[in-house]
Amino acid sequence: PRTLNVDGSHLEGVFYASTETSFVSRLVKKVKEAKRVLFVGAGFITLGFLEHLSSAYPEKSFTVVEVSSSI
User: For the whole model, what pTM was predicted?
Assistant: First the structure.
């Protein structure tokens, strides 16, 4: 996966989108523990995760940040 070249991109709780089963399991576990979730990038896979997770956990706050002016 593409990684971010910014401070903090290596910290615990930072995930890079993947369709691998182990990634999805870790992501869901962290979302269950979180109050807020931030997605950086509005690609197809990211938006798919967002759609599923926001439906499964409507009490969570989800935010998407995208550099492009359109998705």
Answer: 0.78
